[in-house]
Write a structure and sequence with these properties.
The complex is a heterotrimer of chains A (about 300), B (about 350) and C (about 400). Chain B is built from twelve helices and twelve strands. By secondary structure, chain B is α/β, with parallel strands linked by helices. Chain C has a nine-stranded antiparallel sheet, with no helix packed on it. Classes of the chains: A mainly alpha (about 300), B alpha/beta (about 350), C alpha+beta (about 400). Chains in contact: A-B, A-C, B-C.
Chain lengths: ~300, ~350, ~400
């Protein structure tokens, strides 16, 4: 078992390393040079800047310094806003997005799972059909459409909440809904199909033949098995929430890291782009690792290696 | 001898979107304490559905249309699922065909066995654990104490089936239903499992219903046999009578299509031509008649009643009627009019 | 005892009695189509897809506009117009004319059936009484919007038109905007036309990118699966590494790298990344197929490896490949819209649904239709493809095969 975890952690580190390298070289390839601006900078300033940003060193030295910096969590300074430290900005803006993401995740689990389970139990009844129709729509509606509909309806026409910013607790409703819609719908569909699959299994029949109560049969025997694929989905779900935040923060005018990333991209602020990309990559890989651990807890076949019988 | 199980005129159908599939079409039989009853038939004969009907596990879109299943006098068909749960795993147990998929993979077998024990008794965890170890030992699993903590995927097929048997026997059931328990295992393991079942039956005095398509297995452990075809019973008899002088064309056909090394002669294997009937539109009359070489006009129109060949052998075939032509191998006798009174099987 | 008359005669065995159950055999694809047809949701999806394709392909040919044509005077017009009648044939005028005031206080002259004729020039205002004046053929039209700005006012008058001494309190009627069927955007471009060109963009990007992903993915996956061993391990490691961060991030980075925001860069960006899903799927399929006996038979006959892959293995894996392809399309559409929306996709004046949404965000409060329409277009298109893909997946599931 330990072997499995060690392998996964090493794998994660190697991946991060490769991505850091990739981002470094991509950055070097960016057209226009880092200091191209509308208003040209004076030659002396340019020289100072180039020195500061190590641009005069041979490429491998730059690479080395870059990597060292990353390990120390120093992503350098913003290219566009001189004097602004990338790492600082990340840690300033990240908590806001984190909060939204957490709320969205909670919503997904608290609503998505039960809907999926109930739909599976009441397969082919109107409850099932209705829930799945809503879920299918939820999966296909892009997050910005959701956000837009919410704003124009709830904030605009009905005027119940403020549309933008995060001043009051009610302002969280819109962004969290927009952020969680896709994942919630996907989770309920996944849970449902997984549950249906499990209910058909032979071991369910064994449990019933052994006279176990319906409750036990469902919640003990069915659920744990049904949740396995759902836990596996958690990884991609984080990805969806991360990318969802780009749009949602923009539409709802929230100052999180998602919006900041998009702005950096529009501004071609290369160090910022790379820094935030690395940050996202690291978080994502970490989350996937956590999910893998959770997954191996639930399914003993993974933990102990399949077919370890005689 | 007390009858532990009486199935009376059981009819079970599946109401699918294509129509009603009549899986079991008026079956009656009974079991006494200590019997090992074999139910033999091809796929689609209704043998599995019969056993599921007894234990009440016929699922949507199927249901028991009519008939009674009397277990020690109590009609199980009239009980709710909850009430049935008290019987299942306790007084009536069932094991199924594929051991590889029949145990929940995410819990230890100890967990699952203890669960069944505690569901039907007052034992606390430690007592149940001790009992579980006892059971594993009983079914022949080595190192039971450590194996309690093992997961199903750590066992081979034969071992898993033993575990399932242990689960089924954990509360000393009076009736064990085994639906093709050895079909998915290879022959040597099959022999071991059959031995195990025989021993356990002797020790615990349980009655067994053993469902299979394999005549060889029937010969090994059953004392009574029911031959089913197309949802109906073709013949029911004690084991010796069935093998020595089968009284139904289908049974005879089955016997002839199985190689018997003991005879010493070189005989051609005779397969039964044709295929099983479509249960969506079951034929009126005897279900076997389209394939029967002795078929008569009456066979196509009307199902034969049970003819009493002896007090322990009955066959549903018009050839036994006094008015039918004489055919060698088929005894003339009287039809059973009052099943309740006369039928012992 | 009454005995029934029973016929104990032997049946003539030459009669054909036991006909084996023969039902019309269904080929694989006939069965798939049959199941797909029966699935209501999938059929709706299919219809939706066909409509969207028609919309994008045929639509622009039918439109009198080009997507970049702009009539700035006619900007910010809604699809339906509340109009006030100002001239009446019954009163001796030559035609019935109407006026419409939009949310930016432009007054436009509208014909009887809803065509936008011209913008009437603003001539002055009466600040105190909240009145604007406009000129129509030398005559003055006054627009009184005092009720609109009065917080205390509870009635339902929005603004009133006074012409030739007569004040009209309520709109005469509501007409469909015949000049711009779905309204006009902030630059006076026809939204319907732009939606149609947007459909073209979305569909082109989606289909081409999906095809590229298909080709790369199938090639990569089948080689990896077929070769097995270390090659497979290596190839899958690469896929794993690529997959370890959300693919959208790559696309974003690539767009920044390529620096030109047009359809082809988007296609390249999408095509370089999304093939990994297909590759993994194909590899899985190949792995489970290559040990089957028909492959062994082919190899014994000396069929070359390439032919085995292309002629035997891939055709048998077509089902999941097809489903995957159908699902790639809405992903591509959505991603393109997403990129354009956040500003790194298509750039103005291109009419991508994403750019339209982007341009309309700031106008949300005053002109919600400008954002709703492209959003709806994206939603409906993606929904249709997803319904179809879902239906295909169910229809292709061999476990559900009957007959």
């Amino acid at each position: 078992m330990k072997n499995y975890y060690v392998k996964r952690i090493l794998s994660a580190i190697v991946t991060l390393f490769i991505i850091a390298t990739m981002t470094f070289f991509m950055m070097k390839l960016m057209p226009g040079g880092p200091f191209a601006r509308e208003r040209p900078i004076s030659a002396e300033l340019l020289e100072v800047l180039e020195e500061k940003y190590n641009l005069n060193d041979p490429i491998f030295v730059q690479y080395y310094k870059y990597m060292i910096g990353i390990v120390q969590l120093d992503f350098g300074n913003s290219y566009k806003e001189l004097g602004v430290d990338v790492t600082e900005q990340i840690f300033l803006k990240f908590p806001i997005s984190l909060r939204l993401g957490l709320y969205a995740t909670i919503l997904v689990i608290l609503i998505g799972l039960p809907i999926g389970i109930i739909s599976a139990l009441k397969q082919n009844t109107w409850v099932d059909h209705a829930a799945m129709l809503v879920a299918t729509v939820g999966v296909t509606i892009p997050s910005f459409v959701m956000a837009v509909v919410y704003i124009s309806l709830v904030a605009g026409t009905l005027g119940w909440v403020d549309a933008f910013g995060l001043d009051k607790w009610t302002s969280y409703i819109g962004p969290v809904i927009a952020l969680s819609t896709y994942s919630l719908s996907f989770t309920s569909r996944l849970t449902r199909s997984s549950m249906l699959e499990v209910l058909r299994q032979d071991y369910m029949r064994t449990a019933r033949a052994n006279g176990l109560s319906k409750f036990k049969v469902l919640y003990k025997h069915a659920l744990k098995n049904a949740l396995i694929p759902v836990v596996t989905y958690l990884g991609p779900m984080f990805a969806a929430i991360i990318t969802g935040s780009f749009v949602v923060e923009q539409v709802f005018a929230i100052g999180g890291i998602g919006r900041y990333y998009v702005d950096s991209v529009s501004n071609r602020d290369y160090t910022m782009i790379m820094g935030i990309t690395m940050f996202y990559a690291a978080i994502y890989i970490f989350m996937v690792l956590l999910v893998d651990v959770a997954y191996s807890w639930i399914d003993p076949r993974i933990r102990l290696g399949k077919n370890s019988g005689e | 001898m007390a009858k532990i199980l009486e199935v009376k005129h059981l009819v079970t159908s599946f109401f699918t979107h294509l129509g009603e599939v009549q899986a079991v079409r008026d079956i009656s039989f009974s079991l006494e304490k200590g019997d090992i009853l074999g139910i033999v038939g091809e796929s689609g004969s209704g043998k599995s559905v019969t056993s599921l009907s007894v234990i009440g596990l016929v699922d949507d879109p199927g249901e028991i249309v009519s008939g009674a299943v009397l277990f020690e006098g109590e009609d199980l068909t009239k009980l709710s699922d909850r009430e049935l749960n008290k019987y299942r795993g306790d007084e009536i147990s069932m094991i199924f065909q594929d051991p590889m998929t029949s145990i929940n993979p995410v819990y230890t077998i100890g967990n699952q066995i203890i669960e069944v024990i505690r569901a039907h008794s007052d034992m606390n965890h430690l007592e149940a654990k001790a009992r579980a170890i006892e059971l594993l030992d009983l079914v022949g699993i080595p190192e039971p104490v450590t194996r309690l903590k093992s997961y199903p995927h750590e066992f081979s097929g034969g071992m898993r089936q033993r575990v399932l048997i242990a689960m089924a026997l954990s509360n000393n059931p009076k009736l064990l239903i085994a639906d093709e328990p050895t079909t998915a295992l290879d022959v040597t393991i099959q022999a071991q499992i059959l031995d195990l079942m025989r021993n356990l039956q002797a020790k615990m005095g349980a009655s067994i219903i053993f469902i299979t398509h394999d005549l060889g297995v029937i010969a090994e452990i059953c004392n009574k046999v029911i031959v089913m075809y197309g949802g109906k019973i073709m013949e029911k008899a004690d084991i010796m009578s069935l093998y020595e002088k089968p009284q139904h064309p289908y049974t005879q056909g089955l016997m002839q299509s199985v190689p018997k090394p003991e005879t010493g002669q070189k005989k051609r294997l005779v397969p039964i031509v044709g295929s099983p009937p479509d249960l969506l539109k079951p034929p009126s009359g005897c279900p076997f008649s389209p394939r029967c070489k002795y078929a008569m006009e009456v066979c196509l129109k009307e199902s034969a009643p049970l003819y009493k060949i002896s007090s322990t052998q009955f066959a549903s075939c018009w050839l036994h009627d006094k008015e039918a032509p004489v055919v060698e191998g088929f005894v003339k006798c009287e039809p059973v009019l009052d099943e309740e009174a006369e039928v012992i099987l | 005892m009454v005995s029934k008359m029973r016929d104990f005669k032997f049946v003539d065995s030459s009669k054909e009695m036991d006909k084996e159950q023969i039902r019309e055999s269904l080929t694989y694809w006939k069965d798939v189509w049959r199941r797909l047809k029966g699935n209501v949701v999938a059929v709706i999806g299919l219809i939706g897809v066909i409509l969207v394709i028609l919309f994008g392909v045929v639509g622009p040919m039918l439109s009198p506009y080009y997507f970049s044509d702009q009539i700035t005077d006619f900007a910010y017009l809604t699809p339906t117009l509340d109009v006030f009648q100002i001239t009446n044939v019954d009163d001796g005028d030559s035609e019935n004319y109407f006026v419409h005031l939009n949310n930016d206080y432009r007054l436009l002259l509208i014909s009887e059936d809803g065509h936008v004729l011209e913008r009437l020039i603003y001539t002055g205002r009466d600040r105190a009484n909240f009145i604007y004046f406009y000129d129509y053929e030398g005559e003055e039209i006054a627009v009184d919007y005092s009720k609109r700005t009065d917080d205390e006012y509870t009635g339902d008058i929005d603004y009133t038109i006074t012409f030739r001494g007569e004040e009209t309190l309520y709109p005469t009627k509501t007409v469909w905007n015949k000049t711009f069927l779905l309204g006009s955007d902030h630059l006076g471009r026809d939204i319907l036309c732009r939606l149609m060109y947007g459909a073209r963009i979305s569909l082109t990007v989606a289909f081409v990118a999906a095809t590229v992903n298909l080709l790369i993915g199938v090639a990569y996956g089948s080689i990896s699966g077929f070769k097995g061993g270390t090659i497979d391990n290596l190839m899958m490691r690469i896929v794993d590494i690529i997959n370890s961060i959300p693919l959208v991030i790559y696309v974003i980075l690539l767009m920044v790298l390529l620096d030109k925001s047009n359809m082809w860069t988007i296609i390249i960006a999408l095509g370089s990344v999304y093939w990994v899903g297909m590759a993994r799927l194909v590899r899985g399929q190949i792995l489970s197929l290559k040990d089957l006996e028909f492959v062994l038979a082919a190899r014994t006959l000396g069929v070359s490896q390439g032919k085995i892959i292309t002629k035997h293995l891939i055709p048998n894996a077509i089902g999941p490949i097809l489903v995957s392809l159908t699902m790639m399309i809405p992903t591509a559409i959505f991603t393109e819209a997403f990129l354009s929306f956040i500003g790194i996709g298509m750039s103005a004046p291109a009419a991508s649904w994403g750019t339209m949404a982007n341009e309309a965000i700031s106008l949300l409060e005053k002109y919600p239709y400008q954002l709703m329409l492209p959003s709806l277009a994206i939603g409906i298109t993606v929904l249709s493809f997803n319904f179809l893909g879902d239906g295909l997946r169910s229809a292709l599931d061999p476990r559900l095969r009957k007959g």
